[in-house]
Write a structure and sequence with these properties.
Largest interface: A-B, 52 and 52 residues
Number of helices of chain A: 11
Structural class of chain A: alpha/beta
Shape of chain A: elongated
Order of helices and strands of chain A: EEHEHHEHHEEHEHHHHEH
Strand content of chain A: 15-25%
Number of strands of chain A: 8
Largest sheet of chain A: 8 strands, mixed
Distance between the termini of chain A: 30 Å
Oligomer: homotetramer
Helix content of chain A: 25-40%
C-alpha cells in the first residue's frame, strides 16, 4: 500500500501518519511497507496485503520484529527490562478480541521467578487483560494503573484493535507507537490515558485497525470514484480492460479531477471540501441510525492470524 | 421498518419482497412488521428493531411462531410429520454461523425412536450441518440430498445467514420461504438447489441477512442522502434539530428530489438510474479490490440472540 | 445426598462439613439438601442430584437464592452495598472455568454510575477475572487486592471450581462460606488469603467441586465396597436384585463391617485407619505419576449449567 | 511406556494389544514406543509421555508419519488415491472432540477439483464430521455410508477419541488400525460397523484414549499397589526413598506377589482373579451410580495438541 494520500485523513484518524516527517527509510517488499515518523513521539507503521500464506507471514514477521526492536531501542528499553503485556478489548467480540488473543499467546515468564525456576537470562514478562467496562464495570485505565503498581514493570506493551480511518487499511496494517494508549477511546469516550508521562515508564502501543465506520466506506468510495474517473480520463486511449489488473489501487493514488469535473461528476457534493463531505455523510447515517461500525466477514480467521503474528513477534523480540 | 421502498431492490436482492402482492395483513407492533407475499411461492418476512431485551424478544418470537406455523400449514405439513433441520453455513465464521448454531439449539427427538424412548405424540426431528465446501471438499447440496435419502423426513427446514440487499435490514429481518434453498449461492456460485421440486418434500428456508457488501452501503447512503435533502427541503421552515428524533428513517421513505435537484446535489451520478449507479459503485470497489463483505461489530452477540430466537421458535412450533 | 458420613473427610477436604454443628434446618427436597454450619465462619452447603432439567434447576435456584441471601444477611451486607464479583480460575481449562463463566454471566451495573445512567435503586456491581498465574505471571491475590483498592466495594463475592473430597459430590454441590478465599490453593501452593480479616470487607466464596484426585476415587470406592458387602450381609435374605434401585447410595451410608470382616474382605489394607489407607493409595499413585486430577466427561455441559445457575442466583439476589 | 503387562487387559480393551504377535521392531525413543501387531488386521500403537514440548512433538510426529504411511502401504493405498477423513465424536464435549478437531485442521483439496484449481499431483482429500446421535438424531454409521456413496473415496480415515483400558495410556497413545470403526460403541451401543468388508474400501482408524472409567482407575491402582509392595519387598534393603525416581512405573511392571501375600495385603479381594476383581469394583460403582467416565483436567490443552499432531501427520503423509 502506498502512503501518498494519507496525510489528509489526520483529522479523525486513529493511525497517525505524517508523510512530511518521513525521516527514515521506506522498505518496500512487494506490497509490504514500513513507514516511520517521529513527530510528538515515534510511529512505525507496517502495511501488507496478506498474511494468510506462510511466506508472507514470515516476511511481515521479520519487519514487525525489526519494528518492535526499534521502538524499544528508541525508548531505551534494556535487554533485561521487565515487561507487562496489556491485552485490551473484548474477548467476546471477535473484531475487538485482538489484544486479548495476543495476551493469551505471548509466553509468560514472571511466575517462574516466583517459583525460582527462571534463569537469569530470561526477561520477566507478565500479562493482563482488563476487559471492557460493560463487562467489568471498571475503567480499564484504572485497572492498568493499579496492576502496574503491583507488577512494577520496567515498560508496558499494550495491544488493541482500532477503528480504521481508511478502507484500504483494515486488517492490513500494524502500527507501533510510544505515545500512550487511551482504552475505549474508539467509542468516543474521553477517558484517561496511559503514557510514559502518566505512569513514568515507556508505554508501547501495538494497534491493528479491524473495524471501520460505514461513513468512512462511503467517503472513501466516492474519493476513489473521483480518482477512478480521473484515471480513465487521463488514459482514455488505453483499452478499457487494461486497468483491470493488480495494483490498480496504487495507480489511482495520484489521480485527481479538476473542480469543474468534480462538480460535473458529483454535483454540489463533489465541490465540498473533505471535512464537509464527511460531515454530510455522517449527518445522513447518524440521523437514520445507520452509521454502523463494520468488519470484514473473514474477521474470525484474520484475528487468529494477526494475534499469532503479533504474539510470535513479541516472543521473538522479548526473549531474544 | 417500513416496507414501502423495497420493491426497487429486487434486482439483486436475496430477500424477495414484492409489495404489490401484499395480500395479507401487515401486523405492526412497534417497529415489528410481518409481510406476506405469495408470488411463485410463499414468503413471510418479519422485521424488527431489536431483540436484545426480553420483551421485544418475546414479541418477535410470537410472530415468528405464527409465521413458521403458517408456512408449514400452507405447505400441508401435518402435526406428526417428521422434520430434518439443516443448519447451513460455516461454524468458524461468526456471521455465517447462524444455521449451525440454530441446529445445535433445536431439540432433537429422532434418536429417541431408535432407542424406543419416544412417545407417540412427539414429532420426529433430526438435524444436520453440512459445513462449507472449503472445509469439507463436498458440495452441501449433494450432502443434503444423500442425508435426505437415509433420514427420509416428511419435510425439511434449512436455516442460513444471507447477504443483505439493504443496510436497514442487517440482523433485523427473518424471512421464511418455501421456494427452496441454494447453499453457497451467496458467493456467486451457481449450484444445484434443494426444493420441493427437486426432492419431493416441502423445503422451508429460514434466512437472516447478517452481512452486506460495501457497495450496498455506498448506494444506500447516497439514496438516503437524496431523501434527507428532500426532507429538509420540504420541511425547511422546521427547526433543523427537529428531525433528530426516533424513526427519522421512516420519515425519509417517501421523500424524493426532482431530477434537476438530484443533478445539482450529486451531478452526473445523481442522474443515473439505479442499475447504473450500482454498476458504477461496484466498478470502483471491485477494481480496487475494496468491495468487502462486512458485518456489524456486534455480530457475535447478535448471532447468539438470533440463533436462540429461531431455535426457540422451532422448538415451540415443532413440538406443539 | 445424605450428609451422615462426611465428617470423617475433614482432613483433606476443601468443603468444610461439620455435622455436629448442624444448628439449622435441613431442607430435604427430593435429593436436594441444604446444610448449614457456623464453626469458625458460616457455611451453607447445597447438594443436589441433577440440574439439567428445568424443574430441578428452578428448585436448586430457589435454595441457592435463599442461601446467598442468608450468608449476605449474617455478614450484615446492606441492600445497597456495592459488590465486586471475582471469577477465579482458568478460562482455557473447562473444569476450572466456572468462576470466569459466572463473572461473564452476572449483570454488571457499576459502569452505569460512571455514565450517569444508574437509578438510585440499583446495587453497584462490578466484576473481575484475575486469570491464573501461569497465564499472567501475576499472583491472583495481589491482583484482587489491587483491584479492591480502586473499586472500593462494600463486599466481595468470589466464585471458584474446587477439588472434591468425595466422589459423590462432584458437580453436585454448591458451598457458600464467609471464611475467605485462597486462590490457587488447589494445586498445593501456599498463597495469601483474601478474607474479611485481610481486606476489611465481607468476602463470600461460592465453590463447586468439579474435579477429583484419582486417589480419592480409589479410597471412596473401597469404602463403598465395605458398605456394599455390609449391606448385602445384613440383607442376605433379600433377593439380590432388590438393591438395584434408586438411592442405593443412601442406603449404604449407615452400613459398616466389623474389623474382622474388613480384614477378611480387604486384608491388611482393610484394617488400616482412614489416614493410612489414603496415604498408601497416594503413595502408589504419586510414585507412579498416575495420581491424575480428573473430571467427568460431561464437564463442558455441566459448567454451562452450573455457571448459569450461580449467575442467575446472583442476579436474583443482588438486584432484588 | 513398556508394553509388557498389557496382554491381560484384552478382555475389555478398546486398544487391541497382543504382545505375542509382536512381529516387527519396537523403536524405543526415550519413552516413545511403536508396537505393531497383525492378528485379524493390522495394529500400530505409538505411545509417548509428552507432546507438549516441541522436540517431543517432532519425535512423535515422525513416528506417526511412519505409522500412517505403513498402514496405508499394507492396505495398498496408492499415492493418488482419494481420501475421505471422518472426524467422529462430539464437538461440544472436549474429551470427545478429537476427531472433529482433526477434521477441521486437515487440509482439504477435493473442492479444488470442482473449481478446476487442483493440479494433477494433489491427492483429493475431503472431510466430514457426522456429529453424535443425541445432537443429530441420525446414526453416524448411516451418515458415513451415505456420504461415502456420494464422495466415492478410494479409502477412508476415521479419527476418534476412545475409552482407555489402562490409566497409564490416557492421552499418551495413538493407535492405528485397519479393522474398521464402530462409532458410538464406547457407550455400550451395538451399532453397525464401517469396515473394508462392509464398504469395500480400506478403512483406517486413528484412535486416542482420552477418557477412562472410575472402575478402571480403582482396578489399576490396586494392581499397582500389589506391584509396589512386591517391589518394596524385593528391594527392602534399599533405602525407601530410592524408588522415588523417574520411570518407577516401568520398574513395577515385572513385579508380583505370591497368592498368600496377596491375601495378606488385600484379603479375599486380593485372591480374586482379574475378571472377578473388575466385576466386584463395577458392581459397587454401578449400583451407586458412581462409575463415572472421567478425563484429566488438562484435557482442553491436550486435545488441542493431539489434534494438531494427528492433522500435521495426515497433512504430511496425504500430500507427500
Amino acid at each position: 500500500m502506498s502512503e501518498i494520500n494519507l496525510s489528509k485523513y489526520n483529522l479523525h484518524t486513529d493511525l497517525i501518519i505524517d508523510d512530511n516527517s518521513l525521516e527514515h527509510q521506506d522498505n518496500l517488499v512487494d506490497n509490504l511497507t514500513v513507514t516511520k515518523t517521529n513527530k510528538s513521539g515515534h510511529y512505525i507503521t507496517i502495511t501488507f496485503d496478506d498474511i494468510t500464506d506462510k511466506t508472507n507471514y514470515q516476511k511481515v514477521l521479520k519487519h514487525l520484529n525489526a519494528g518492535i526492536s526499534e521502538i524499544l531501542k528508541v525508548n531505551k528499553v534494556k535487554k533485561n527490562a521487565s515487561c507487562l503485556i496489556v491485552g485490551l478489548g473484548n474477548r467476546f467480540s471477535t473484531p475487538d478480541s485482538l489484544g486479548v488473543k495476543v495476551a493469551s499467546k505471548v509466553t509468560i515468564s514472571a511466575h517462574l521467578y516466583e517459583v525460582g525456576e527462571a534463569s537469569q537470562n530470561i526477561r520477566k514478562v507478565s500479562a493482563f487483560t482488563p476487559g471492557v467496562m460493560a463487562a467489568t464495570g471498571i475503567e480499564s485505565v484504572k485497572m492498568i494503573m493499579a496492576l502496574t503498581k503491583i507488577v512494577k514493570p520496567d515498560f508496558l506493551i499494550a495491544i488493541d484493535a482500532l477503528a480504521s480511518s481508511n478502507i484500504t487499511r483494515i486488517n492490513k496494517t500494524i502500527q507501533l507507537t510510544d505515545t500512550g494508549i487511551h482504552p475505549g477511546s474508539g467509542i468516543g469516550n474521553n477517558r484517561k490515558e496511559i503514557s510514559q508521562k502518566s505512569i513514568g515508564i515507556p508505554v508501547i502501543a501495538i494497534g491493528v485497525p479491524t473495524v471501520v465506520m460505514s461513513s468512512t466506506i462511503v467517503y472513501d468510495t466516492l474519493d476513489y470514484l473521483i480518482k477512478h474517473i480521473a484515471y480513465l480520463k487521463t488514459n482514455e486511449c488505453i483499452n478499457k480492460l487494461s486497468y483491470k489488473k493488480t495494483n490498480y489501487l496504487n495507480k489511482l493514488n495520484n489521480q485527481n479531477l479538476s473542480n469543474i469535473d468534480k462538480k460535473n461528476l458529483l454535483g454540489l457534493f463533489g465541490t465540498l471540501n473533505e471535512i464537509d463531505k464527511q460531515s454530510l455523510i455522517e449527518e445522513v447515517l447518524n440521523n437514520t441510525e445507520l452509521n454502523m461500525i463494520v468488519t470484514p466477514t473473514e474477521i474470525d480467521f484474520l484475528i487468529e492470524k494477526l494475534s499469532s503474528l503479533i504474539a510470535d513477534s513479541l516472543n521473538n523480540v522479548l526473549y531474544n
